[in-house]
Q: What sequence folds into this?
């Protein structure tokens, strides 16, 4: 028995007339009659009673019609799922995350992606840079978000955003009176920097920017993430710099944020990384969302 025979049987069972069923299937009557006879012989039961004006289902035929209908629905659902998966509309997207972008940009991208492709299950994994690269190569994740990753020949990169940096100050700090803070004004100020793993990283970016202004950062603390850094600023441990995405979303009592006044080069990139040889439609669909977001940022 094959799916074609089930299709033929259901056509006859629904039409209750061999001629109409044959017309619906674009067949002549004799081949359809032979297929139904072969199916009855294989099952060892009569499925139809031949009548003067057509056919009627036997009791066994009624049961087989119900089961065949269920099988048809399952097959159609399977075909639909396979086709949607092949088009990148169904499946699972494993995403590596790390750093301050999770507070603003990454959730926005994932929200758009989920609204566009609700059949895709998005699973997040917190991984540092080395772990992200390893997970991409082992196919445990599809994409990863990070900053300042070293180029790898087998890892593709899509720029997501270029973010301005903001200085985080205690509300009573003398620089908090300014609408914007010159980067040079941070000379001699104790700084809380993050993250403390995965070099080169944001710490190195801040140090490079300060050297361009002619001074070395006075590092008071190196911590794991932006939240910890801002919390220490609130308790007087020093100042810190954060990307704009963190400044928009992280509010810690006792702190205030100011843009930098004299350092247009004080920006940091956020990128989406993926296996360069990954041909999956799911990846293409996600990168399309990333590119649309980037285009919107440029337009703004």
A:
């Amino acid at each position: 028995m094959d799916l074609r025979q089930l299709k033929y049987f259901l056509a006859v069972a629904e039409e209750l007339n061999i001629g109409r069923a044959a017309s619906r299937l674009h067949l002549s009557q004799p081949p359809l009659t032979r297929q139904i006879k072969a199916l009855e012989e294989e099952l060892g039961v009569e499925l139809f009673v031949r009548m003067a004006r057509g056919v009627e289902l036997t009791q066994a035929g009624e049961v087989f019609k119900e089961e065949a209908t269920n099988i048809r629905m399952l097959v159609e659902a399977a075909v639909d799922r396979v086709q949607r998966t092949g088009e990148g509309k169904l499946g699972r997207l494993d995403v590596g995350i790390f750093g301050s972008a999770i507070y603003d940009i990454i959730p926005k991208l994932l929200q758009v992606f989920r609204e566009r492709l609700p059949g895709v299950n998005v699973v997040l994994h917190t991984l540092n840079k080395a772990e992200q690269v390893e997970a991409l190569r082992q196919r445990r994740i599809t994409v990863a978000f990070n900053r300042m990753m070293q180029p790898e020949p087998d890892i593709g990169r899509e720029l997501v955003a270029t973010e301005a940096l903001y200085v985080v100050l205690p509300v009573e700090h003398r620089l908090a009176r300014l609408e914007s803070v010159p980067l040079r004004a941070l000379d001699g100020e104790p700084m809380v920097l993050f993250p403390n793993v995965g070099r080169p990283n944001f710490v190195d970016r801040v140090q490079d920017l300060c050297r361009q202004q002619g001074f070395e950062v006075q590092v008071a603390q190196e911590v794991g993430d932006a939240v910890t850094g801002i919390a220490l600023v609130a308790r007087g441990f020093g100042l810190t710099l954060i990307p704009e995405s963190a400044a928009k979303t992280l509010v810690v009592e006792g702190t205030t944020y100011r843009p930098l006044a004299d350092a247009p080069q004080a920006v940091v990139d956020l990128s989406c990384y993926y296996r360069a040889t990954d041909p999956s439609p799911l990846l293409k669909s996600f990168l399309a969302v990333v590119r649309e977001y980037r285009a919107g940022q440029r337009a703004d």
